[in-house]
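Appendix B. Chain record.
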Amino acid sequence: GFMTRYERKIFDDLKSPHLKYWVPFVWFGNLASKARKEGRIRDSVDLQTLMNEMNKYRSWCSLLFGYDWVGIPLVYTQVVTLAVYTFFFACLIGRQFLDTDQGYQGHDLDIYIPVFTLLQFFFYAGWLKV
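Structure tokens predicted for this chain:
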């Protein structure tokens, strides 16, 4: 609903190896200049303000495009995955209940299901997958 069918056809027919987020900004700039020449924008200061705001918005879009262009290196995901699993293993062993007053032979670890540690692991692993 932001473009006419004719504008959409021009936009789709435009060949570009990258995203075409900049095309509507060029159209806006041309329309604003045309409106100034026709007297619809009465003051050059108003035109300058419009163009400054448009350029600010365009720079935000290009910054977002830059974030999309540069992917996260694979080693970061591997390091985070290793850290999550290592943390879970350390918590699984370290959070075992061991009552030394009971005089267990060799102070073996108790075998029980650490529910909160498992929940913590599921949350971390879920966030990791996201």
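Further analysis of this model is presented in Appendix C.
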